[in-house]
Design brief:
This protein is mainly α and 311 residues long. It is built from 13 helices and nine strands. It folds into two domains: 251 residues, no CATH class; 45 residues, no CATH class. Helix content is 48%, strand content 9%. Strand 5 and strand 6 form a beta hairpin. Helix 3 packs across helix 4 and helix 8 runs antiparallel to helix 9.
Length: 311
């Protein structure tokens, strides 16, 4: 992949999404949602838990889309607090209330279970929340090799074989490190290596594939780390520090832009609509019978059921 193509995407991002940029550096997405991790120069524990709530929403259905995850986070944040999850271990009323929110607002009860595991669970005989804080504070911050081990340790806690629930944290583990690094920029603290701070979600990995940038597209930890490192090598430079967002927005938007002189509502049913972010097959425009909504669907149906329908 030629450097000028990367710079072209970076310039597009800087122009089209300038609200995400300050001094050519990415601002914190979590900070935009009111999660202030840096409190008097220290990593605030309650705000860190809110970051885990956000990461969990974005890692699981039906809130994995950015806008939906934000919407639900704003709805539940006042009750989904660290102290409430701690009290839920002994207080059945609070426990039932947290479960109810997971069912009624999140529409995924297992999100509650994962967060309860994070706060009150044990891992290799240690409290999970204590282990998380130790991992984030582990010495030698900023070295690629040490930080890769750090990410693997945190990933290992929430990897499905260890955490026996259908909902878990995988790709959004990278988000935890990215947001902490950005919010502590300039303090000399928590400056994790950028190679563990680029979130290799489906959009980003498909963008790597389309652009022929080296980076595996699998879901195992080695592939995720390789993809994150590839993104960091391209988009965390002396000129700018943008992490994964240029590729995230570029891939999400490039195939949704209407052709010149047309509107999305005028696209013909069956017309080519880009590449599926889940399986890489062609997408086509379809129209929902119930609502008449025009949406994109995967041609690999029923093996792949990806679509961007609103319901």
């Amino acid at each position: 992949m030629h450097r000028h193509r990367i710079d072209e995407i970076a310039r597009w991002f800087l122009l089209q999404h300038y609200e995400w940029i300050q001094n050519n550096k990415l601002v914190s997405w979590a900070g935009r949602l009111g999660i202030e991790l840096n409190v008097n120069g220290r990593l605030d524990e309650s705000q860190l838990f809110h970051l885990f709530v956000l990461a969990t929403l974005w890692n699981n259905k039906p809130t994995y889309r950015a806008e939906k995850g934000e919407e639900v986070f704003k709805e539940i944040r006042d009750y989904y607090r660290l102290e409430n999850f701690r009290e839920a271990a002994q207080d059945s009323y609070i426990k039932d209330r947290l479960r109810s929110i997971a069912s009624e607002n999140i529409h995924n009860p297992q999100v509650y279970s994962l967060l309860m595991f994070a706060v009150n669970g044990t891992f290799n005989g240690e409290k999970v929340w204590t282990k998380i804080k130790q991992i984030l504070d582990f010495p030698v911050i900023g070295d690629r090799e040490y930080d890769s081990r750090r990410l693997r340790r945190l990933y290992g806690i929430f990897n499905p074989p260890r955490y026996e629930q259908p909902e878990y944290l995988t790709v959004k583990i990278f988000l935890i490190f990215r947001e902490i690094r950005i919010q502590f920029r300039g303090t000399g603290k928590y400056q994790y290596h950028p190679a563990i701070c680029c979130v290799p979600d489906r959009n980003v990995r498909q963008a790597l594939k389309v652009l022929n940038i080296p980076g595996e597209v699998g879901n195992d930890i080695d592939s995720l780390l390789n993809a994150s490192q590839s993104v960091a090598d391209q988009f965390c430079t002396e000129a700018y520090e943008l992490y994964d967002l240029p590729l995230f927005f570029w891939y999400r938007e490039k195939d949704r832009r209407p052709q010149k002189g047309t509107e999305r509502t005028r696209q013909a049913r069956g017309e080519h609509a880009g590449i599926c972010p889940r399986c890489g097959s062609p997408l086509v425009w379809r129209r929902a019978q119930r609502t008449n909504e025009l949406y994109r669907g995967c041609t690999n149906f029923a093996r792949c059921r990806w679509n961007d329908r609103s319901y």
